Task: structure prediction
Amino acid sequence: MAMFCSQLKSPGRALKFANYGHFLNHVIMLVYPTIALTLSDLWSNPYGELLSAFFIGSLIYGFASYPAGWLSDRWSSWGMMAIYLVGTGVATIVTGFSESTTQLILGLSLIGLFASIYHPVGTAFVVRHASNRALDLGRNGAWGTAGLALSAFIAAGLTYLLNWRAAFFVPGGVCLGLGLLFILTTRPIDSNKSETGSITEPRFGDILVPHLVRVLLVMTVTVLVVGLFTQAFTTGLPNLYDNTMSFLVKIFDWDDSVSRTLSSAFVSAVILFGALGQIIGGALSSRYSPKTVYIGMFVFILPLTLISSGLEGFPLVFVGALMMIAVTGCLPAENCILVHFAPSEWHGRLFSLKFVVGLGGGSAALLANGYIFDKTEGFFWFFSFLALMSLIVIIGGLLLPKIRNEEMKTAALAE
Result:
């Protein structure tokens, strides 16, 4: 079957669609943890149970990315991009009509299925149409981080101004509109050749060497744990800040909706520091050993997790920003480690698998958060879970082979 690639009338337009799609991907995938706070007041379900309703959707979001990339390579990247935008938009709008947790689970699962298409397909769009690959990948990553950061604020703001259903309807409508615009203003062309005019098939023998097997085994564990840490931290922030900002509610006599909007603004501010973290991590990984940077980020995080359970209010927001910088700062180092040890023809597939493990397996953090928030008081066990994840990454990093290559000053790959 012939393979296709997308050819737009201008590279700039291709990059715009990829960037906007990345922004919407993270907005839509993370509006629900904030919406769940409102639903816990409106419905009879506890917050932890409602948060766990997103588990299947998050699991699909991670694991379906590999077959999405496979279809893109063997059918049409343009077609998959169109399906992503239109499908995610429709699924998000449909989820907004939910009347029960069962309907929510089905809707969120559908969102996860269509949203899983973006990363393997959208990143290829950026690489194919970039005039400056490193710069354009960085910009694309910044759009994704902005979506991640603003998702909670968008959800809380729309809920406050309209209702919780609008937090699904508006992003879903924008995504659907962007998809229709993409279909109307772009066109695919046939192409079954790589940039070099041929396709190199990876061979399993190339990765079945002792040092690489060791790296892959260790990185499978650490990538999973980093995914658990990241998803636990980002999905736990709305509930964390909603509770710890209670002193402001008492001082100004605010109602719950105003308080929730404020706490969501702090969540957005903290996650936005993730963009700075990627820049810092990339710069450090191009100058020092990525292994050292990888371990160092979690050595920095570990004491922060231990002191956070005793903080509240603005000090907790500040420490949260530092933790977000570090956890995103480890991602360029993680990518550099894989690139350093793996044969080049395996890079694409390994990064697809990395996304499956990190986001698919990391979705179990939703279940952990749901259990912790419903069964325990305060946030001691929440931060203890994060501390345990940090310790595992540090131990795993120490088990990696040394990176002596003096040429590790290449630019870190964008997440």
About this structure: Residues 210-244 form the longest helix (35 residues). Strands lie at 4-7, 187-190. The chain is about 75% helix and 0% strand. The longest strand covers residues 4-7.
